[in-house]
């Protein structure tokens, strides 16, 4: 189907551009219960059959007490797909939830990260794949620029602080209209997380902003993704990139008079 072709083309492009998966890798996919991570899992299983390299795929889910429905149906689905899955009930996160019900995302993510490394190490994998989509990259880019005073989004590929895990986000070029449509064709259960229902958050506002703007400018996210891959450092304000002697950008006149020069 065309949708599948589009999905695989975009995931394949990300994997190859950033050298995300290498021969012999064991890739552990973080299944969050939503449409994005299950789409990522299916895309990797399909690419595994076609890729010129050998790699294996397994999956894990960290239970932090925020799923709105039991996650158990995943077990049957993944067994049917022949995917090894570890479901980890993170006691520390449950304690946190009880002691500090309003703890923020930072703390929650820190607890999750610790659990993820423990689980993935136990599964014998060194590569962790997360289902962050193009929408997440665009939102993160805007959030950092508008609220945190930084020009940055998410890394498509990075390493854990001890360098023992490579962390990849192969859906960087895949927008959520694709994951929604693709997951809709699967028999996979979708288990919502309580946090995804929250209103009045910056995330929700940015999502609403994109939805509104995309009515008139449907290529908006595409353009933002291109922008993130096409940085003109000398036209920003960071002094580290303004010294013409050290600048990788041509002559000074190109910098000062880019339009007229
Ligand atoms: S949105 Fe919810 S689950 Fe996600 S990091 Fe924040 S508190 Fe945790």
What is the CATH architecture assignment?
A: 3-Layer(aba) Sandwich
Cα distance, first to last residue?
Answer: 48 Å
Largest sheet: 6 strands, mixed
**What would the principal axes of the Cα set say about the shape?**
globular
Mean pLDDT across every amino acid position? 91
Q: List segments where confidence is low: pLDDT < 50 over at least 5 consecutive residues.
A: 252-261
Percentage of residues in DSSP E strands: 5-15%
Question: Ions, cofactors, ligands: which are bound?
Answer: iron/sulfur cluster
What's the number of extended β-strand segments? 6
Helix content: 40-55%
Spatial extent as radius of gyration? 20 Å
Domains, number: 1
Q: What structural category arises from helix and sheet content?
A: alpha/beta
What name is given to the CATH topology? Rossmann fold
CATH class: Alpha Beta
Helical stretch count?
A: 10
Largest sheet strand order = 3-2-1-4-6-5
> CATH homologous superfamily - what is it?
HUPs
Write the H/E string, N to C.
Answer: HEHEHEHHEHEEHHHH
Write up this protein:
This protein is α/β, with parallel strands linked by helices and 261 residues long. It has a single domain, classed as Rossmann fold (3-Layer(aba) Sandwich). 46% of the residues lie in helices and 10% in strands. It has helices at residues 2-17, 35-50, 73-80, 91-99, 105-122, 134-147, 176-185, 202-216, 220-228, 252-256, and strands spanning 26-30, 56-63, 85-89, 127-129, 157-159, 166-168. The chain has a six-stranded mixed beta sheet with strand order 3-2-1-4-6-5, with helices on both faces. Helix 6 crosses helix 8. The structure holds iron/sulfur cluster. Iron/sulfur cluster (SF4) is lined by residues 66, 105, 108-109, 193, 195. Iron/sulfur cluster (SF4) binds next to helix 5.
């Amino acid at each position: 189907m065309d949708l599948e072709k589009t999905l695989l083309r975009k995931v394949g492009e990300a994997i190859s551009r950033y050298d995300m998966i290498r021969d012999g890798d064991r890739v552990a996919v973080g299944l969050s219960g939503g449409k994005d991570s299950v789409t990522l899992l299916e895309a990797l299983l399909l690419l595994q059959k076609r890729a010129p390299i050998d790699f294996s795929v397994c999956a894990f889910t960290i239970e932090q007490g925020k799923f709105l429905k039991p996650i158990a149906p995943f077990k049957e689905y993944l067994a049917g797909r022949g995917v090894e899955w570890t479901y980890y009930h993170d006691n520390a996160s449950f304690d946190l939830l009880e002691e500090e019900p309003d703890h923020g995302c930072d703390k929650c993510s820190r607890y999750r990260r610790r659990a993820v490394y423990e689980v993935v190490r136990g599964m014998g994998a060194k590569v962790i794949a997360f289902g962050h989509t193009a929408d997440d990259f665009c939102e993160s880019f805007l959030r950092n620029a508008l609220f945190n005073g930084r020009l940055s989004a998410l890394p498509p590929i990075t390493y854990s602080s001890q360098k023992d895990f490579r962390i990849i986000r192969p859906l960087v070029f895949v927008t959520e209209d694709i994951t929604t449509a693709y997951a809709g064709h699967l028999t996979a259960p979708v288990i919502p997380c309580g946090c995804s229902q929250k209103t009045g958050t910056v995330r929700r506002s940015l999502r609403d902003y994109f939805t509104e703007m995309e009515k008139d400018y449907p290529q908006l996210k595409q353009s933002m993704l291109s922008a993130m891959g096409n940085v003109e450092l000398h036209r920003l304000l960071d002094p580290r990139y303004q010294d013409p002697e050290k600048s990788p950008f041509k002559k000074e006149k190109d910098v000062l008079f880019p339009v007229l020069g």
